Amino acid sequence: MKPILYAPAWLALCTMVTSFRSPLNLNTRYATANTYRLLVVKSSYELKVYDSSGEWLATYPVVFGNKDLGDKLMQGDRRTPEGDFHIISKKVHNKWSRFLLLDYPNAESMNRFNQRKAKGLIPKDAQVGGGIGIHGTWPNEDYAIDGYQNWTEGCISTKNKYIQELFDWIPVGTGITIRR
Predict the structure, then answer these.
(1) What are phi and psi of 116, to 5 degrees?
(2) What's the fold here for domain 62-179?
């Protein structure tokens, strides 16, 4: 008799644990009626999608490059840049499913880079880097996202099924804030 009493609680717990995203899926109603805003919170390994009114629509699990989660200092440090950016292009990617390219480096990130260089925090011959975006994983390697394994060179990576959703509904020009 007791196992029957615990079954509903167990089912509810399993549903909560696996429901990472909002039940409000990204769909054509939102794609045509709203603009989006993305927020990446590195400390919680989340990419959140908001509509133009600020309503939360979905949350996706993500991973990054360097495990210390600091701001990108220079090319090759494997860190994900922090600040405000925009998606400037979208393409199908032969390794990582889909790729949403960000406008890194922008004026804000170049200013921080040059200030750090002037203060001697990075080498004088350092380069700022580029090619930062949001993409999927290698085929059949979504487990890297489940295990929060930071593996990129500074990009943001999510599961292939999630990058497909984002690719389909998030337009070029969408703003994205990345913070620690």
Answers:
(1) -65, -40
(2) L,D-transpeptidase catalytic domain-like (2.40.440)
Q: Give the whole-angstrom CA distance, residue 23 versus residue 14.
A: 15
**Is the separation of the CB atoms in 38 and 49 below 8 Å?**
yes
| pTM of the full structure | 0.82
Residues paired with 50 in a beta bridge: 37, 56
The residue written with tokens 């009493």 in the block is 5
Q: Rounded to an integer, what distance in angstroms lies between the CA atom of residue 152 and that of residue 97? A: 14
Cα 149 to Cα 152: distance, rounded to the nearest angstrom: 9
Q: What is the pLDDT along the chain (180 residues), one digit of tens a residue?
A: 444 444 444 334 333 333 354 434 555 455 555 689 999 999 999 999 999 889 999 999 999 998 889 999 999 999 999 999 999 999 998 888 999 999 999 999 999 999 999 999 999 999 999 999 999 999 899 999 999 999 999 999 999 999 999 999 999 999 999 999
